[in-house]
Amino acid sequence: MAGAGTQRPDPARVTLLWDGTNPAAATAAGELRRQVPFVAADEATVAVVLGGDGFMLRTMHRLLDAGSTIALYGLNLGTVGFLLNGYRASGLQERLASAQPAVLHPLRVDAVGPDGSVLRALAINEMSLLRASAQSAHVRLRIDDGAVEVDELQGDGVLVATAAGSTAYNRSAGGPIVPLSAELVALTPIAGFRPRHWRGALLDAATRIAIEAVDPGKRPVQAAADHHELGRVVSVTVQRAVDRQLTLLFDPQHTLERRILQEQFR
Fold this sequence. Notes:
- Strands 1, 2, 3, 4, 5, 6 and 19 form a seven-stranded mixed β-sheet that branches. A six-stranded antiparallel β-sheet has the order 8-7-18-15-10-11, with no helix packed on it. Strands 14-13-12-9-16-17 form a six-stranded antiparallel β-sheet, with no helix packed on it.
- The chain has two domains: 2-105 and 245-263, 3-Layer(aba) Sandwich (Rossmann fold), CATH 3.40.50; 107-240, Probable inorganic polyphosphate/atp-NAD kinase, domain 2 (Tumour Suppressor Smad4, Sandwich), CATH 2.60.200.30.
- The longest helix is centred in the N-terminal third of the chain and has 14 residues, at 53-66.
- By secondary structure, the chain is α+β, with helices and mostly antiparallel strands.
- It contains five helices and 19 strands.
- β3 (46-51), α2 and β4 form a beta-alpha-beta unit.
């Protein structure tokens, strides 16, 4: 989930991170180093990230795992660049000084494997639960430890998406795009065919969502948190991680809130 930030990080202490597998990012890093006095990562309050959305997402996960509070200002040297700003070599310090923050809270994913082991991960975009065989997935949905809301969802699976991730896999599965300030998550079936008319739900970001495999022996399912595969599971709980957050910085004329809004008209 996400929200608007109120305080900009100090742009005077800036470090540089780039995708070493991306030649354009390496070239851009050289260009920027000749213009900006970057500092070491452990001294910085802002990191300029060069690469595409995949590299940005991996960087975000690495910082979450490390408990870092450094803010990220991405410059797109990939394909889509939804989480990044447009690249240009000049004016970086001025752009950082005027950048608008967006604070993102990931989803905390707790899964139980077939052997009873507990698997944990954080999801910035979405948690997806998918069938792991030719058999369709049959799962049961509970909300906030209460009564069963969907006794047996049948299909390819189900996903829970944050607002920041609602324009990605969630949208391709037919789920709604969620405004960044809405404080909601999307619960979306993946190729669901029973119940025939259920198309998902929008839930308060604080909601605890429990998903149970109805017959994991016959109909195994597997879970993933963004690009992190958790393997086969028998149940998953998903809830906003209020104690973990990331700050992304965007040019004021093209904020993340604005990008998500525009996706609803494309």
